[in-house]
Specification:
74% of the residues lie in helices and 0% in strands. By secondary structure, it is mainly α. The protein has two domains: 8-75; 87-180, Alpha Horseshoe (Serine Threonine Protein Phosphatase 5, Tetratricopeptide repeat). α7 (123-135) runs parallel beside α9 (159-183).
Amino acid sequence: MSFYRSLTLLWPGLPWVWLRGSRAGLILAVAFAVCLDMAVVNTWIWTEFVDLRVTLGIWAAAAVIWLVATASALAAFPPPLTSQRDATSERLFVTARDAYLARDWLTAETKLQALLTLCPTDGEAQLLLGTLLRRAGRFAEAKTALEKLARSDAGIPWTHAIRRELQCLKRSEQEQHEATKDATLPLPSEPLRRQAAA
């Protein structure tokens, strides 16, 4: 379990909300937030209005919710999303890879998009798509795709390759910027414009 994934255990329900988008996890996280808010308000703001036993009961309820939710999350922590390719997905990937190696960007992108529709968590296909977009000169799309992959569970096995691609992307953007800057000619000065007009 990675450090950042384990940080979600600090708030009840957060592992399931953050890592899986679970509604039950959202309900648990909101219930804990309400209970904790009530305990804080009753302890430090409405001290005269609420009996001490009620305040202690709310704190006890918050502690029980936290302990039970953390214990259950540890027992059934959401595993990282992984993707296994079936025969159809494997054929699409091989076709896309071969098209990429042949510099047929359109075919490669089409096959990769079809593959990612079938298997949206295929990290290798996402990495190949990001690389293809960089090679095709679509830098903004490549950066978005690679950064999205870097933040996902599917990108964990490809961390080094993603970092290398992002470095190549940065170099390519700088080279393109310098090339466009060199290609821009300065406007002629005012006396030259007058001579050209005459």
